[in-house]
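So, can you check these tokens?
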Amino acid sequence: MSVKLVISIIVLLSVGTVSISLSIRQLVNSYMLQRTDSQLLQQAELVFKNTTLLNDTKSTADSNSFVSYYVQAYDSQTGRTYQLLQPMYRDGVVSRPMLPHDGGLDGHEIAVPYTTPAVVDLENVKGQPDHETMVIAQAPWRVVALRWVSDSANGTIEPRGVIYIGLSLGNQIDMIDNLTRFCIIVGAAVVLLGGVLSAITVQRTLSPLKRIEKTAAKIAAGDLSQRVPDAPEGTEVGTLAKSLNTMLAQIERSFRQQQTTTEKMKRFVSDASHELRTPLAAIHGYAELYRMQRNAPGQIERADDSIAHIEASSARMTLLVEDLLSLARLDEGHGISITDHIDLGSVIRDSADDLHALDPERDITTGVLGLDVSEPDHLRLSMTPGELPSVMMVADGTRLHQVVTNIVGNIHRYTPADSPVELSLGVLGLDMPLDGLTSLASGEESLQAIVGAAARFTVTQHGMMVAVARFTDHGPGVPPDGLTRIFERFYTADPSRARQKGGTGLGMAIAQSVINAHRGFICATESPGGGLTFTIVMPLAPTKRRPERARGPAVVGIMLTAAGLCCMRGLR
């Protein structure tokens, strides 16, 4: 592209220089010709009347540099032509215009100058004339024809003939040729200098594009971390570099997300296979044991134990398959209907009562959740003890009960029965778009961003109203790196303990899918003093869920669900 640009600039400079040179040549030529015509017309009578004087001033040298006019007269009374004045060039070269000898005009008009060829006479030339003299001598002449009149005896003016007065155009043509050569030299210098400067300018201007080209080559080789060097803002290259960097960041982020999704899918398939293999192996083993014991004397009780183990394993596999099917339906955008008018406070109160019934010794504290602005540099959510408020919202009541039940059920299963629990609920305003919650990752930083949006809402009063529910326990909690993985499918901080408690590792993944379907946000953080805190934020206004076709884990989940159901039917 740089070569094409330089060639285009050189072509434009050449065309412009040639056009200017031709224009100057034509303008000067016209101007000089006009001056010659004016000189002929203004001095014709003076020259004609002083031909004798001009002839007398001729020197005896071979040339007459003072006389430049040619004068010829045709006398109609005698029919003869007289050469009244003849200029002579160097070395005796004689040049005169080609004129008629009969007083004719050859189609020209009286007192209107015209151009005629030259006739060169070399009879009196001594030696070989130089080239410059011959060029000037062969130049055409500019001639004007005038009426020749004389006074008669009775005082009247009588026509006598025609007078031709001419000036050679040799000097004018020589000046035009010199001017043309000068324009050619200057034009060539301008084109050459312009080509060099344009090459340097184009190279410097396109250097950012060359850097972009090198960066693109590295990206094509697989290095997605490369970025285009920044260029000055407000320029086309700067805008292009900024757009490319934004696009590259999105591509890299999408690629990393795709890699993460692929890894999650592989882990999902592996974990799902493992989780399904365990109850299937137990069912298969106890079925064989039952077949061996059913006809043996005195083994009826042990055969009943085998049947009980088979029922327990099939129940566990049924629960696992139901969770997989639920996740698959949520990933496909089905299995949820956000049309119920429910009281979120009542849902949490029912779960608190259930937890109290399961763990009578546990201290359960409820209250109203709000924004604590007592420390402007450390904004946070705080609970005021008291009754849970009633918060009406449009949601899927069954799924929302499932979310709260999963969270409270984990508290019952994985925390000591006498450890305290705080359940709180409140309504806050957030200065963010309606879909802003769904774009947040489940983590402490996103929760702080929500708290900051709540603080801004107190000033701007612009945004949306949300329900914020918080479930805080003081149990063993999870490792710090597990806080970001707690919503992954089949993730458990202690797999053996989870299996003993009857967990499948899908409860929190289902909870996150349900909350996301409500255009909400859920995260897990460490409780003050130890333990785990779940925070749920959901818009109070109803939102229409857009169907999202999931791939990978959802499809695998459906396949595993079908396989599990088939196995169950085979056992029956």
Notes: The chain has three domains: 2-182, 227-332+551-572, 336-548. Residues 227-332+551-572 form one domain. Confidence is low (pLDDT under 50) at residues 59-65, 543-572. The longest strand covers residues 157-168.
